Amino acid sequence: MTEAVLKVENLQTHFFTKAGVVKSVDDVSFEVGRGKIMGLVGESGSGKSVSGFSIMGLVDHPGRVVGGRILFHGRDLVGLPDEEMRKIRGRRIAMIFQDPMMTLNPVLRIDTQMIETIQAHEKVDRETARQRSRDALGQVGIPSPDERLMAYPHQFSGGMRQRVVIALALAVNPKLVIADEPTTALDVTIQAQILYQMQKLVAEQHMGLIWVTHDLSVVAGLADELCVMYAGRIVERGPVGRLIDAPIHPYTKGLIGSVPSRNPRGQPLTQIPGMAPTPIDLPAGCPFRPRCARASDICRTTPETAEHLPGRFARCFHPHLEDAA
Questions:
Q1: Is there a domain that residue 99 lies in?
Q2: What is the 3-state secondary structure (H, E, C) of 176-230?
Q3: CB-based contacts of 303, cutoff 8 Å, min separation 6
Q4: Domain count of the chain?
Q5: Which of 16, 110, 173, 240 would you call most buried, defined as having the most Cβ atoms within 10 angstroms of its Cβ?
Q6: Does one domain contain both 180 and 237?
Q7: Helices (H), the chain
Q8: CB 141 within 8 A of CB 197
Q9: Has residue 102 been placed in a domain?
Q10: Tell me, what DSSP letter sits at residue 95?
Q11: 59 with 190, same domain?
Q12: Residues 257 and 318 in one domain
């Protein structure tokens, strides 16, 4: 059995606003194994990014983690003092953001930013930090890394900037990386190159990777396990191949049914009716109930996560077991 780098147990992150309590993450549980990639998929507002920020300890006021545990190599990060969390954040757990210019300083050269990052987390001399920066750029497929270290962010294309950000995150050899939609703004060719590099790095460095995205086609060929989020909860979890080929939860089935490549040519796409609920005004019971064709009176109560098939978990009273079996 693969050693778990991270175990999230019943995580709850709420935002306390004047309009009421927003349950952005509500009873979320998953784990990430060493050398494994977990995909976290869902619509905008489903709680994917807030889950990542909660792990990093980056949830700002008026939000806070109000329940659950975040076990990193067995150590609970919830409630950890800021000084202790700073020793873990960036050094042992790194995060890659969607927009590389949120991470890179436009007025500093790449070598300055990478060297300062390494020296902030480890006691190494400047030359050692520079060599590690060069090696990290080479790992993510950037040609002529010595020359590129001397460049500024604006001298890189969008895809190259994103590779620099990935190299920046990997330069300190973290045990866990959280990638928050890092390829969304890139063209398909560059996206495929970065996905390949990430798979290769995870296998070589035996780290854990959480890939946050709304694009099922991205994680289909990238992840080992997939978690589908809806309204702050994980509604389905399982091995990526089996989950995509035969989804259990009606929401997952609706998501996959709306992907053009999985539908016969000339036939209209299957749409999920209605809109996702606002987190501040969730319906009673199953939050997907108003949009679900299988809903019944029992769906007015909250379903618990159950193992419907070996390794296949879902929050649903009426799962699609006939197809998945």
A1: no
A2: EEEEECCCCCCCHHHHHHHHHHHHHHHHHHCCEEEEEECCHHHHHCCCCEEEEEE
A3: 285, 286, 315, 316, 317
A4: 2
A5: 110
A6: yes
A7: 48-56, 82-88, 110-121, 126-139, 145-149, 158-170, 188-205, 216-220, 240-245, 250-257, 321-324
A8: yes
A9: no
A10: E
A11: yes
A12: yes
* Cis preceding-peptide flag for 62 (omega within 30 of 0): yes
Indicate left, alpha or beta for 99 from its phi (over 0: left) and psi (-120 to 50: alpha). Answer: beta
Structure tokens, 86: 């700073």
**Which residue is it, tokens 């969730």?**
282
Q: How far is CA 306 from CA 1, 135, 303, 321, in A?
A: 21, 45, 9, 13
The answer to whether residues 257 and 214 belong to one domain is yes
Neighbour-count burial of 7, counting CB atoms closer than 10 A to its CB (0-12 exposed, 13-18 middle, 19+ buried): middle
Are 84 and 194 members of one domain? Answer: yes
Q: Please report, for the domain that includes residue 37, its CATH number.
A: 3.40.50.300
| 39 and 119 assigned to the same domain | no
Q: Does 137 reside within a domain?
A: yes
Q: Within 10 Å of residue 4's Cβ, how many Cβ atoms?
A: 16
CA distances from 252 to 74, 162, 280 (A): 31, 29, 23
The CB-side HSE value for 210 (13 A sphere, CA atoms) comes to 32
> pLDDT tens, 2-52?
689 999 999 999 999 998 999 999 999 999 999 999 999 988 889 999 999
pTM of the model: 0.91
What's the CA gap between 267 and 274, in Å, rounded?
Answer: 21
* Domain extent for 21: 4-92+174-324
